[in-house]
Amino acid sequence: MYVISNRITLTGSSRDYEEIYARGGAFMERQPGLVRHQLVRSLSDPAVYFSTAVWTDRESFERCVARPEFKEIFGPTRDLVTIDHHRCSVVSEGASAPGTA
Question: Which InterPro entries does the record match to this protein (predicted)?
Fold first, then answer.
């Protein structure tokens, strides 16, 4: 697994950023190798979001971000947010036991 985890700080409109992310998420969902993605917003600081995308491998992610459509969709975010990018590998993971969630 290859995981992208970003801390995103708003410098512009949250509504505009969330609309762009929704379009970008729909694009990523059509790309081979995406396992899942999620955008969450901090409850303690509404100017902060965290995005996580899990890919089967680094190559699938690199192919996705190299596509012109990815750059066209996410390009306008440079006027709305600053992003602290993190490329990660899974060290440990878990899930709730059946019937306890």
Answer: ABM_dom, Dimeric_a/b-barrel
